[in-house]
Structure formats: structure tokens, C-alpha cells
# Entry
Amino acid sequence: MELNPNPTPMTAVAMSGGVDSSVVAAILRERGMSVVGLTMQLWNQRRLPELDRDGAHGQRCCSLDDVYDAKRVAQHLNMPHYVVNYEQRFEETVVQPFVDEYLAGRTPIPCTQCNNHVKFDPLLVTARQIGADRLATGHYARIRRNETTGRYELMRALDGSKDQTYFLFGLTQEQMSRTDFPLGELDKTEVREIARRAALPVAEKAESQEICFVPSGNYVKFIAAYLGERGQSLPEEEGDLVTTSGEIIGRHRGVHNYTIGQRKGLGVAAGKPLYVVELDRAANRVVVGDDSGLRTSICEINRVNWMSFATLEAPLRASVKIRHRHDPAPATIEPIDTTSARVTFDEPQRAITPGQAAVCYSGDVVLGGGWIR
# Structure
């Protein structure tokens, strides 16, 4: 790639081939800005073909068709476009940890890992290498600079139903200083209308739903195929299915087949609903109980990234979100050390899950977040 010879400030747009990022490019072009499109090649779609034979599956991001759509949009908008290959980094920082976490009995969030280690790390470096000062993406979120503290703050999108700040808590100050989220002030209806007015080729394209490297949506099948590619196999480790009181009521098919809160597929008839309340990987046990057993008030988080301030030095009141679709609940956050904290909710929360994130809010402002352990 050649450096941009044009002294006019240039913005790189992360173009996924979907309507959101395509509208971002259209908005910036309409403003008369110098824009270049960057599309990430993250996963070789020809790998693990047996998964595609599972039959119909939902829309997934970052497919080869998406790369083609991004190029079509760039051509329509008369802007340069490059495809950048991050397959190795994506596998090392997203796919392999995804597999490892599931096998360890945790429930990972690959989209957050991708944001942390791919979209806002090497992509910003690549943008700078081709002469772009800033990076714009199709995320529904907002960034502002707090004039009092001098720090950049991540804020929820105006369209709460599309808000994606839960997946963006890992952004650093330097990354936020160079990133724009043009859709943060818009709702999805407005975005679609802009796409139609601009006659974008993807104006009516459906949204991606599945994880890009899990085409069937079946995590266990993906892990089995991924390990098989390496000459390995899923651990055949049946173990005890036990109640919270310690009573053995059956056998499980391997800890990796279960998630916290799961009700179906337990293989036992207890006369009342039972849910997975704990995955004890060390003892190779799956612990089940009633709905009340899923509700806890305290969790610890590690690898914390504080955004609105450098470090947490004293207990703090905030609203905390433990899943993307979870309504933030009031809690007290206490520092354990510089990279971990304890979250104590005012009321017990359902299915606090190791491997997921806990993201702390003050109103619309994201204070920071970390990984539930």
C-alpha cells in the first residue's frame, strides 16, 4: 500500500460489507471527506467445510460475500478500497482463546476480543500506514472528550436497542482519540433510509447474526472440527451431574457442552425445572439447581480497563451490565488491585457467567469493564 500523497486529512472506514459500515462511508463521502475503505479478511471460509454441510445457517459477518459487497460499495461511492489479511492474528487472539475458554468451562465473547485485538489495534496501525489520521466504524456508540478530565469517554448510542458499548469496553484512550462512530446519533431506521437515498448496493441487506467462524451456529461442532483439523479430539470426559446440595442425579457429556443458565438437554427428569448453575471444570462436575440457584449478588472481574479514569482507587457506585441484553443493575464496585475489582449488586442477578464481561455505566457513560472470573 502506498502512503497517501494528499495532504488533506483522510479517514479509513472499517467496511464489513454490511449496511451500517457502508452508510458510514456514504456519510463521510457526502461531507466531502477524503475516505478509504479497509475490509478485514479474518477467517478462511474454506476451512472446516464439514460445518457448512450442516444445512441452512444464519447471516454471519466477514464472509467472502461480505468482502465482495464492501468492494461494490466502495466502487459505488468512488473511493479506494483495500482488503487487509489479519487471519493469523484473528486466530491467535480470538479463535484459539474461544476454544480454550469453552473447554475450560467458561463462555467467551469473541466479538469483544475481536474489537480489543483486531479492529481497534492493527487496523488503526494499517490506517496510519496508508495516511489516514482517523478510523470510522459502523458501531452504534458515541465518543466524546471530557473537557474537565481531559479523557475520552465512551457513551451509549442514542438508539438503545442497537447500542454496542458492551462490546467496546476494551478501547484505550489513544484508540478513542482516533476513532469515530458516525451512527451513534442515529437509529436503524435512519441508517436504512440513508442507505436507500445513497443507492447503496447493500441497502436492503440483512444484518449478520452468527459468529463469522461458526457458520452453523453450533459452538460444540465448531470446536470438535477445529480440534480435528489439528489431529486432536474433544475430551471424552463424562462426569457427575450434581445438585447444589451435592446429590448425584445423572451424568453429563463433558463440561464444554453446557453453559450457565441452560435448562434443556440436561438428560434428567426431576419433576421441576433445573438449570445449570455452575461448571466445575476442576472436579469435572456440572452443578444444577432451581432458578434461585442462578441468582447471585457478587462477582469478581479481572483484566479491567477503566475508561473515564485511569484507576479505581475507592468504592464506586455504578450500573453494571453482565450480558449484552442485560438491563444494567445498580452495584458497588470495589478495587482489588489495579487490574481487578469486586462487583456487589444491590439485588441478586441471574446467571452471572464466567467468561462474559461486566461493563460499568454512569448514565450513558461507560466507566470501564472487565471479564467475569
About this structure: The mean pLDDT is 92.
